[in-house]
Amino acid sequence: MSAGRLYLVPNALGPGTLRAVLPVETSAIAASLDYFIGENAKSTRVFLKRVDAVVPLAKPIQQIEIAELDVATPANALPALLAPILAGRDAGLVSEAGCPAVADPGATLVRLAHRHGIDVRPLVGPSALLLALMASGLDGQRFAFNGYLPTDARERAEAIQQAERRSIQLHQTQIFIETPYRNLALFAALLDSCRPDTLLCVACDLTLETQWIASRTAKAWKGTTVDLHKRPTVFLLLAT
Length: 240
Description:
The protein is built from eight helices and ten strands. The chain is an alpha/beta fold and 240 residues long. The chain has two domains: 5-122, Cobalt-precorrin-4 Transmethylase, domain 1 (3-Layer(aba) Sandwich); 128-238, Methyltransferase, Cobalt-precorrin-4 Transmethylase, Domain 2, CATH 3.30.950. A five-stranded parallel sheet has the order 3-2-4-1-5, with helices on both faces. It has a five-stranded mixed sheet with strand order 6-7-10-8-9, with helices on both faces. The longest helix has 18 residues, at 153-170.
């Protein structure tokens, strides 16, 4: 028996209908699957209910198998997640928000799927990182995603300054994310650590009704009050 396919199924970046952010074809493939791998079973079921509102699920949610894969999942547990696919079932890997396997624990599973010769199919959907880069006005030809910066203030400042130096040397946009309740701390650190003429973009609540995106120099941002608390945000900088 040939192996099934592993579909990488994007999720919305926040509440609301999936129709605005996922092509119907993506929802249709998700609706056809009976095996999903997600960070949290409960939130994966919520996602499936939202899919069902667009394209009816092929099976009741109670009959859809959901396995969990998060940052705490040990490497020796990954083969069991792939076992149903190797046995011939198609599966969907879904993130909590946005594209799976990007800033997401799913990347290790995808790597293992390739080792086993499984057909990996990425589906179209929203990526907060690319949406922020598109809207920033910063360099979209050369960019690097740095993920989360250290929470220690001194280490975070050093990491920002290193990123700024790389931006100058490589003419490269640097991209960061943060846990939403620490957004303001990161924003303050960027203003304190960056050169006055470094461009900073703040992209908040992407694809949502409350979306807000602005690009200014660090100097121009000084003294600005921004409401970023507990709002999904992407930060970008470009130094010259």
